[in-house]
Amino acid sequence: MSLQNVLFPERFKNPARYYTTGRPTYPKLLARRVADLVGLSRREQVLDLGTGPGFLAIDYAPLAGGVTAVDPEREMLAVAAENAKRAGVTVNFVRGSSFELPAGIGPFRLVTIGRAFHWMDRAQTLASLDPLTLPGGAIALFGERYPEVADNAWYPAFRSLVDSYSTDDPAQGRTRGLSPHEGVLLETAFDHLERVSVLESRRTPIEHIVDRALSFGAAWDGKPGSRENDLAQEVRALVSKHAHDGVVHEVIEGHALVASRSRDLKS
Q1: Which residues, at least 6 apart from 90, have a Cβ–Cβ distance to it below 8 Å?
Q2: The domain that contains 250 carries what CATH number?
Q3: How confident is the model over 13-37, as pLDDT tens digits?
Q4: pTM of the prediction?
Q5: Out of 18, 29, 34, 176, which could bridge 211 as a Cys pair, Cβ 3.0 to 4.6 Å?
Q6: Which domain holds residue 21?
Q7: What's the mean pLDDT in 164-183?
């Protein structure tokens, strides 16, 4: 099944308003650890591809000479621009995608991709980024996981509930059947891989967990309406059992898979 068939127009348009409060930001230390690993300086540029709400672009703005953030969804770019303004940083937001990178961008010391690589033609995207990435530069795939600790006892049931709303999602078969990113990277120029992770304890309001559920396009089945209200009510009831004073404790592990060119390491 092609991406064109599963990326229905409202997959990211409708959930965009829930990303800022719903999706967890990455630990700030993670961005700095990756910047140190790739030798990023204030004289060099960063590309954040599939920027979504702009979290990574905002994290890297103080660490680089400039950040270009690309996303295909207008509503998501508007959300990201507002987040950058609120954070007091300057980011160049550009409409585009991995399938059609904006003209005239680059070169970059670092390309960041957060929770979006599975939506791309991965091999083709890496081939397109190769000439835009400086010698010694890298591509970093960011994500998060929820370690099996007491504070995350609510998470498995939350994940199952969200998944139960996405049984008709046409993207399920494609995204869940993908081969691991590591295998794809090892077959490209970016074949030297290193991992970086940072764990962080957080206190998250119940309503932000509700927004997190609503930020998943799969749960919408491509259309807003009663499903939005039903899911919100069920998530609220579920996480309230684990909350104290309206707040849920959670532990987030932000992680990055950093891929550079082994040929650069030998030169």
Answers
A1: 61, 66, 84
A2: 3.40.50.150
A3: 778 889 999 999 999 999 999 999 9
A4: 0.92
A5: 18
A6: 3-266
A7: 75
